[in-house]
């Protein structure tokens, strides 16, 4: 069962930037700057690499051949689930980057799969499970728990531990899971894919046991720097162009990429019925090995490599199908982004936040 510990924020390792719990309605404290390694720019080789480095029938849909007939855009494949729209590819090239992100978040969360104080869950739901790696690790850690991962694409392993299963499902539709079922509902990296966040969180509230926990981790997507090494005020800078694409595409599709900006997700959780408190941790995810701190240097290595592998996939659908770019224009931007990611003079990062809150025991 889920723990009834106080919902206050767990300790953060000494190497992590300081964070603080915040209530919805406040912007929260931005993660502290990451100190640049003074020896970093003397490293000669800053190339693309870095040495640091079975389905059940869904509650809402059954596996069909039409879902396996993925849509293709310029050689990249995308999910084909009913009328759902998701902007990232589901092919192996993109999925390798997702797995790197999983390991990166494991490091950021101090070698933990989640921040919620759940000790011995009976049932866990991973919404938007992707490759399923988080759900598989959770099932291994809690062999007595039922772990379910849902996603639009059947890209997860066919072999799973006996206590883990994957289901095809669109999380934005009405959930058919039983009420008061889960001790933990985990969401990660769903930016740009949900039209109605309060509705999604209401579904989670209903399906959580009294005393259960909702946890959501997502990016802020905007690339920046603290020391002025990246000038995103220059509209021609590749990072500035990158930032604009996601902001404009989210506005045009009605599926915002600014989910965690200024406490929006905590506000939506409150609107959905969660009374708070809302525990929030903010992180700055370095793009490269420029940080001085060993932990954030390793995070930066994984982050840059993940981004290098996923660049085209991140932007192709949004630029071509949503904003009307030509494919050749996308390739030019991807090339410029690769150069920027390999530039040791850029101390760039983008933001990320984790929010966790509890359904009341009398809920």
TrEMBL record:
What keywords does the record list, in alphabetical order? Methyltransferase, Transferase
Cite a single GO BP annotation: methylation
Which portions of this protein are annotated as coiled-coil regions? Answer: none
Q: Which CDD domains match?
A: AdoMet_MTases
User: What residue spans carry the Low complexity bias annotation?
Assistant: 1-17
Q: Name one GO molecular function term.
A: methyltransferase activity
Per the record, which residues fall in region Disordered?
Answer: 1-34
Looking up InterPro entries in the UniProt record yields:
SAM-dependent_MTases_sf
Q: Pfam families, alphabetically?
A: Methyltransf_23 (PF13489)
Q: Which family does the record claim for this protein? A: Belongs to the methyltransferase superfamily. LaeA methyltransferase family.
The protein depicted here goes by the name S-adenosyl-L-methionine-dependent methyltransferase
Say which species the protein is native to.
Answer: Apiosordaria backusii
């Amino acid at each position: 069962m889920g723990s009834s510990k106080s919902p206050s924020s767990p300790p953060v390792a000494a190497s992590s930037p300081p964070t603080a719990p915040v209530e919805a309605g406040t912007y929260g404290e931005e993660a502290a700057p990451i100190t640049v390694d003074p020896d970093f720019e003397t490293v000669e080789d800053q190339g693309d690499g870095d040495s640091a480095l079975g389905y059940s029938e869904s509650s809402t849909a059954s596996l069909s051949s039409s879902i396996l007939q993925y849509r293709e855009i310029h050689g990249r494949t995308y999910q084909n689930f009913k009328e759902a729209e998701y902007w990232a590819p589901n092919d192996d090239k993109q999925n390798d980057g997702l797995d790197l992100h999983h390991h990166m978040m494991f490091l950021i969360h101090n070698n933990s799969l989640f921040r919620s104080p759940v000790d011995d869950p009976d049932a866990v739901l991973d919404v938007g499970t992707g490759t399923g790696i988080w759900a598989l690790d959770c099932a291994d850690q809690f062999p007595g728990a039922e772990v379910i991962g849902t996603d639009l694409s059947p890209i997860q392993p066919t072999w799973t531990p006996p206590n883990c299963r994957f289901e095809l499902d669109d999380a934005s539709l009405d959930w058919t899971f039983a009420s008061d079922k889960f001790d933990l509902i985990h969401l990660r990296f769903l930016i740009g894919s949900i039209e109605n966040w309060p509705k999604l969180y209401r579904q989670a509230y209903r399906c959580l046991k009294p005393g259960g926990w909702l946890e959501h981790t997502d990016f802020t997507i905007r690339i920046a720097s603290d020391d002025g090494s990246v000038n995103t005020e220059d509209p021609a800078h590749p990072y500035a162009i990158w930032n604009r694409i996601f902001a404009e595409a989210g506005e045009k599709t009605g599926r915002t990429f600014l989910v965690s900006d200024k406490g929006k997700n905590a506000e939506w959780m409150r609107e959905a019925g969660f009374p708070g408190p809302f525990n929030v941790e903010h992180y700055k995810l370095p793009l490269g090995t420029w940080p001085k701190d060993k932990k954030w240097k390793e995070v930066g290595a994984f982050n840059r490599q993940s981004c290098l592998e996923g660049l085209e996939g991140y932007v192709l659908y949004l630029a071509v199908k949503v904003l009307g770019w030509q494919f050749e224009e996308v390739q030019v931007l991807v090339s410029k982004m690769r150069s920027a990611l390999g530039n040791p003079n850029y101390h760039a990062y983008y933001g990320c936040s984790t929010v966790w809150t509890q359904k009341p025991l009398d809920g």
